[in-house]
Design goal:
Helix 3 packs parallel to helix 10, helix 3 packs across helix 15 and helix 7 crosses helix 9. The chain is globular and about 70 Å long. It has an eight-stranded mixed β-sheet. With 491 residues, the protein is an alpha/beta fold. The protein has three domains: 155 residues, 3-Layer(bba) Sandwich (FAD/NAD(P)-binding domain), CATH 3.50.50.60; 152 residues, Polyamine Oxidase, Chain A, domain 2, CATH 3.90.660; 85 residues, Guanine Nucleotide Dissociation Inhibitor, domain 1 (Orthogonal Bundle), CATH 1.10.405. The chain has 15 helices and 19 strands. The N terminus is likely disordered. The longest helix is centred in the middle third of the chain and has 19 residues.
């Protein structure tokens, strides 16, 4: 007792241990320009005029895929306009002194033999050679882990404390998904499927689970996580057709994937730019497109373009704000996302299964993090970058909260699995994406409104992955190639 009193007296008046200073801030505030467009604000007059047969607007995977197809087919009289200073859309990347890292899309599932377009581009990029994927591009082990009941387990299917009833429901769910897989309904790209089950699109996947008497909290969490991961929407906000598609559309794959890189799908963008960079014009924000008797007048802050045709590969909701005479795209709903790249000076202490490429915390509002240095061949890595994903669900909150608020929210979430995380992190950079990905809400996929946007109007071709209702690499590539093919058929 005397010793305890002595120590207490000695500590009176001493300040608490200073918290480690964490640097960082927001990157990419393009929503400010987007809001000016929404509000019909005035923009500077362009200083020069250029004539071009074809413009592609938006240099995400859809726009780049359109350019890739045109170039391979020998049509090279076009330009690709991008609002940002770095192309890639949801496949943008960043880098620091440690490693490149993704800002959003970070992998491509290994394509089966029916995925001709994905395999073709992977062959062009040297990832697929003589029918075999280069092992350097396949995700190293361990691939996935889940923090559940105080420790990490391998894989994302909850195993710790799962009951016999939970496991029986896992098995029954997998059997039903295999039946859907065999039905021919669910394919990638989606348009290659039979698309008959409109009834599944009219209800949410949450409702479908309830009707099928799936009440295991672990299974329901897993389905909800899948919807938030691919669509940024909860199971109650996601069409049952889209929810089933997530689990039944990939087919049987021989290779153990996915394909991934330190900068995520930014690696694909970088390789494409080696061939396509002569066509690309970055920091070209298109703020108006006028339909002329023959062709289009396209205005950016630097240049006025006169084009015979346009491939609109930017998100479809923007089209009515840019192109005169188009109806509002109200049927398109988008999910807001926050992504953060955390620079760590050391790895946190672990409990259970060791650090994996993809790391998920059970029942977190976020989706966890991927490790940019996971593909490194170095035997020891102390400093690293974690890319953290959070579909916030609230666009106003995402944009109105300051960096300090989100920094604390991220650290508090990670501290559930890593109590010493604040002693490890040196920097947190945050990107806010107000319309990050299309949300396949109940009723959208089979709606006539969505289908109307698939039909070219004169020489205006739409190409964004949101036309599919599924924000996937394969859908973006397909839509871009499809638009390029339609243009070539009319040229």
């Amino acid at each position: 007792m005397l010793r305890r009193r002595f120590l207490s007296a000695a500590l009176v008046g001493l300040p608490a241990k200073a918290e480690r200073s964490i640097q960082g801030g927001f990157v990419d505030n393009s929503h400010v320009i987007g809001h000016r467009l929404r509000d019909r604000a005035a923009f500077p007059s362009p200083k020069q005029t250029t004539r071009i047969p074809l413009l592609i607007i938006g240099a995400g995977i859809a726009g780049l895929s359109a350019a890739w197809r045109l170039d391979k087919r020998g049509f090279r009289d076009f330009l690709l306009l991008e609002m940002e200073d770095r192309v890639g859309g949801n496949s943008r990347w960043g880098e620091n002194e440690i490693t490149p890292y993704p800002w959003a899309a970070h992998y491509v599932p290994v394509p089966d033999k029916s995925a001709r377009l994905v395999r073709e581009i992977m062959e062009d990029l040297g990832v697929l050679k003589n029918g075999t994927f280069d092992e350097r591009h396949l995700c190293h082990d361990p691939q996935e882990r889940l923090f559940l009941h105080g420790r990490w387990q391998e894989g994302l299917e909850p195993e710790i404390a799962a009951s016999r009833r939970d496991r029986d429901q896992y098995h029954r769910f997998k059997q039903i998904m295999e039946e859907f897989e065999d039905s021919g309904e669910f394919h990638i790209p989606m348009e290659s499927g039979k698309l008959r089950r409109a009834d599944l699109d009219r209800i949410s996947i949450d409702d479908w689970l309830r009707r099928k008497n799936f009440d295991s909290p672990y299974l329901r969490w897993m389905v909800d996580y899948a919807c938030r991961d691919d669509y940024g929407a909860t199971a109650s906000q996601t069409s049952a057709w889209a929810g089933i598609h997530y689990f039944s559309a990939r087919g049987q794959i021989d290779e153990k994937g996915p394909l991934t890189w330190p900068e995520g799908n930014g690696w694909i963008v970088r390789q494409l730019l080696k061939k396509l960079s002569p066509y690309v014009r970055a920091t070209q924000f298109v703020h108006r497109i006028e339909q002329l008797p023959k062709g289009f007048r396209v205005l950016t802050s630097q240049t006025e373009y006169h084009a015979d045709a346009i491939i609109f590969a930017a998100p479809t909701y923007l089209a009515p704000y840019l192109i005169e005479g188009l109806p509002p795209a109200r049927v398109f709903e988008y999910s807001p996302w926050l992504t953060a790249n955390l620079t760590l000076d050391r790895m946190p202490r672990e409990r259970g299964f060791p650090l994996a490429w993809d790391n998920v915390i059970y029942d977190s509002p976020a989706l966890g993090y991927v490790v940019a240095t996971h593909q490194s061949l170095r035997t020891r890595t102390d400093r690293t970058v974690w890319t953290y994903y959070w579909p916030t669900g609230n666009r106003a909150e995402l944009l109105n909260r300051d960096w300090g608020y989100w920094k604390e929210a991220i650290l508090n979430d990670l501290a559930r699995a890593h109590p010493d995380i604040r002693d490890c992190v040196a920097r947190i950079d945050i990107m806010r994406l107000g319309h990050a990905m299309i949300r396949p809400a109940p009723g959208f996929l089979f709606s006539e409104d969505r289908k109307r946007w698939l039909t070219p109007a004169r020489n205006l071709f739409f190409a964004n992955s949101d036309l599919s209702g599924l924000s996937l690499f394969e859908e973006a590539q397909y839509r871009g190639v499809q638009a390029a093919t339609q243009f070539l058929q009319r040229a």
